[in-house]
């Protein structure tokens, strides 16, 4: 998920994305919250309902998460944390721009498809976040957007890509396609996520030429 559309302990808003710590109780609470947010929407899912579905006490829930907002934010942050870690791993390999763009795009699509329920809930409910958490969401997305754009700019400078289209437009189109994926992708659909990822990467790289 990226800046083109407005994932430790439960991460604090404004902190850097990092591997997400999960105790068994946290996992149960987050799984129950995700299920109820998907079924009933953010407003329709009560704290009491989440507690009952997770089979924990309210005290246990509030030990890890201070509100429903915190649960919604953590659902998002767990996803973007993984995606930013994947992005950093690709950058650390020092690949040529073409290979790096392909690897970033395929990894992002596969991650989004694997966690499509989280992405779907967040895309529908993100506007419920408070100002501090919204600021953190936008900062994570901006970092991903800017890093991907820098890869495209590098390829334009060294001749790997020859399109006259500005890097910012390429970034908006490429990442915007991924942002729309939760609206229509189904894990049991006719096209495996790996095939979809390869096709999207081929399409973007062809456009860059």
TrEMBL record:
DNA-binding region, residue intervals: 46-65
The HTH tetR-type domain, residue ranges: 23-83
Positions of the UniProt region annotated as Disordered: 1-20
Protein name, per record: TetR family transcriptional regulator
GO MF term set: DNA-binding transcription factor activity; transcription cis-regulatory region binding
Keyword Ubl conjugation appears in the UniProt entry: no
Residue spans of biased composition, Low complexity class: 1-18
Keywords: DNA-binding, Repressor, Transcription, Transcription regulation
Residues annotated as signal peptide: none
Pfam families according to UniProt: TetR_C_24 (PF17932), TetR_N (PF00440)
